Backbone:
């Protein structure tokens, strides 16, 4: 498991440093910093997941998790988008009547 901390989102609640002190520290103002490169060992996974789930502003992310906005858009198979336009010539095909 690999995690990432977005310090621009962090509001300094400090729950991450309480749950997983080996992976998060707090600066002088109480904002979280990631200790190390974000690689989480198997024995610490539960504590880090608890820190991730308890973060009220969701500043901690699992880098291995896929999110819908991370996926590339589907390829455009249709070469000519005008080929499927509804026109008078094909209105019977689309079920339109005047």
Residues:
């Amino acid at each position: 498991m690999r995690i990432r901390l977005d310090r621009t989102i962090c509001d300094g609640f400090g729950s991450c440093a309480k749950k997983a002190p080996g992976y998060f520290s707090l600066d002088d103002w109480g904002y979280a910093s990631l200790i190390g490169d974000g690689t989480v060992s198997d024995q610490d996974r539960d504590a880090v997941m608890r820190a991730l789930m308890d973060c009220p502003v969701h500043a901690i992310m699992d880098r291995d998790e896929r999110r819908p906005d991370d996926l590339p858009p589907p390829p455009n198979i249709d070469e000519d988008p005008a080929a499927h336009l509804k026109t008078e010539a094909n209105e019977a095909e689309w079920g339109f009547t005047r």
